[in-house]
Design goal:
By secondary structure, the chain is an alpha+beta fold. It has a single domain, classed as Trna Endonuclease, Chain: A, domain 1 (3-Layer(aba) Sandwich). 42% of the residues lie in helices and 33% in strands.
């Protein structure tokens, strides 16, 4: 029986680590662009943030997607997920008072196989949901 459970766990484990590697690639890209990473895998009761980064007076909340193509990656950032991310961003700023005056932007970084990551700045706005 344990073998059956392991066959389910292996793909999950592989997907988890592939996602973690994609987040490391995204964080490295942001650092190269002059951002300071404030948090990775931030969990609030209302949602989760992959990366929170700051550059000057801008706070970038970044969702990282690893997919085979850009269209699939963007489709994976659903309206429901964007709402959770926006709520988690509010919780993050509330816990870090020094960030309250910053402009907040919601970005997506797509990590595609055999291609450089794609940084889509201002990918959505909470008001537009």
């Amino acid at each position: 029986m344990a073998g059956g459970n392991d066959s389910v766990q292996k793909p999950r484990r592989r997907a988890y680590w592939a996602g973690r590697r994609a987040e490391m690639v995204a964080a490295a890209l942001l650092r190269l662009k002059g951002y300071r990473i404030l948090a990775r895998d931030y969990r609030a009761g209302v949602g989760e943030l992959d990366i929170v980064a700051r550059r000057g007076q801008l706070l970038a909340v970044v969702e990282v997607k690893r997919r085979r193509d850009l269209a699939t990656a963007l489709a994976a950032v659903t309206v429901r997920q964007r709402r959770r991310i926006a709520r988690a961003a509010e919780a993050f700023v509330a816990r870090h008072q020094g960030l309250a005056g910053l402009a907040i932007r919601f970005d997506v970084i797509v990590v595609l196989p055999h291609r450089p990551p794609k940084h889509l700045m201002d990918a959505w706005r909470p008001e537009a949901m």
